[in-house]
Design goal:
Residues 1-22 form the signal peptide. With 127 residues, the protein is mostly helical. It contains eight helices and no strands. It has helices spanning 2-13, 32-40, 44-51, 55-63, 66-74, 77-83, 88-96, 99-125. Helix 2 (32-40) packs parallel to helix 5. The longest helix is centred in the last third of the chain and has 27 residues, at 99-125.
Length: 127
């Protein structure tokens, strides 16, 4: 079971695109009342951050289930940036993992991001 989760998350996360924000279609299964309730429960600092986002980013955040929105605010700023770049389905999966599994998934995500940044840097340097 444990390895299956890693294969699902690892395989899905392997396709993240670090240079560009994900252009996934908004999730359709988020209940509006859950979204409104969790968005209304933001701290002053979170609300200020949310208000500074482009409308498209706010709209995408508003489609996430409440537990995904809550999980987002627990992340470091670096991980929040990476979180935007993974698919909404992977966000839901990641938010639902145990703390140990999340830590392992983040190790993979950050490793992939570093590898992609290094590859992009060497391609740019060669031009």
């Amino acid at each position: 079971m444990r390895n299956t989760i890693y294969y699902i998350v690892g395989g899905s996360l392997a396709s993240i695109s670090i240079p560009a924000l994900a252009q996934d279609a908004p999730m359709q299964d988020a209940a509006p009342e859950v979204v409104a309730e969790s968005t209304a429960a933001l701290s002053a600092e979170q609300q200020a951050s949310y208000d500074g986002w482009p409308a498209e980013q706010q709209a995408q955040f508003d489609t996430w289930p409440g537990e995904v929105q809550t999980y987002y605010w627990t992340l470091t700023p670096e991980r929040q940036s990476l979180f935007w770049r993974i698919s909404d389905a992977n966000k839901v999966t990641l938010a639902g993992l145990s703390a140990e599994q999340q830590a392992q998934a983040w190790t993979q995500i950050e490793g992939q991001a570093a590898a992609q940044a290094a590859t992009a840097g060497t391609e740019t340097d060669g031009m």
